[in-house]
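Risk register update: the risk of archive-format incompatibility is retired. Evidence:
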Amino acid sequence: MSSEQQWLLGVQAFSAWIHTCAVRLFTESILRYGLPPQFLGVLMKPNPKAQAKLRKSLASVFGSTGRSLRSAGLVTEW
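Archived output:
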């Protein structure tokens, strides 16, 4: 196998892995957290000092989603 073929195989594997991550994000958001099927997935890397404030803000905006799961003890992250 030439180096170009190996490189293309690596690119295809990485593309498949990213696609799998996106599908997981979509399905877990709907099935686990109860989000509607139309939503925007966003990655955030907050400043460690501002992480508590960000979590509090997100909880106030999105606190109603998945409420039944939290009350049943199935979700404990927030």
